[in-house]
């Protein structure tokens, strides 16, 4: 009886490690490259709904998004992806020029940090005014089951 109790206890203790073993195989470098390529494709002058939908495949349905000072709440919301789709659709294709370069990345323990520079021009959909962007951006991406669950966006 003690033997079977020990075996059962050992299995129960090992279960969390076995469940996380799948995460140990997560390729952070490839994910970072693929995510950044999808992000930049959505920003390009001729970005399409197909580009946007591809980008959204990297996100959980309940994505949380924080972009200070515009959005200071990073809580995950059940309709987070739908909100991202709506917001990004509004700005889809507004750039007349776009260039971004990934300058730094790091990862560990279900978090990816990316840093990149952006140069862009476009026309703002609200007021028709020209937009000129030349900034550095830092993002922290929380990973949950192979997808981004929270984005914290910091830029000049």
TrEMBL record:
UniProt keyword list: Signal
Record's signal peptide: 1-21
InterPro entries on file: NTF2-like_dom_sf
Protein name (Swiss-Prot/TrEMBL): SnoaL-like domain-containing protein
Species name: Colwellia psychrerythraea
């Amino acid at each position: 009886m003690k033997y079977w109790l020990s075996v059962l206890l050992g299995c129960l203790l090992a279960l969390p490690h076995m469940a996380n073993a799948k995460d140990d195989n997560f390729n952070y470098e490839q994910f970072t490259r693929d995510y950044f390529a999808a992000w930049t494709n959505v920003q390009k002058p001729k970005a399409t709904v197909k580009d946007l939908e591809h980008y959204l495949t990297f996100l959980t349905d309940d994505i949380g998004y924080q972009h200070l000072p515009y959005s200071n709440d990073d809580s995950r919301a059940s309709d987070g992806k739908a909100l991202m789709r709506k917001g990004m659709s509004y700005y889809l294709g507004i750039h007349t020029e776009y260039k971004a370069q990934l300058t730094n990345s790091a990862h560990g323990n279900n978090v990816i940090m990316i840093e990149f520079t952006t140069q862009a021009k476009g026309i703002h959909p609200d007021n028709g005014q020209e937009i000129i962007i030349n900034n550095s951006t830092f993002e922290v991406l929380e990973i949950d089951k192979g997808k981004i669950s929270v984005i914290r966006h910091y830029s000049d």
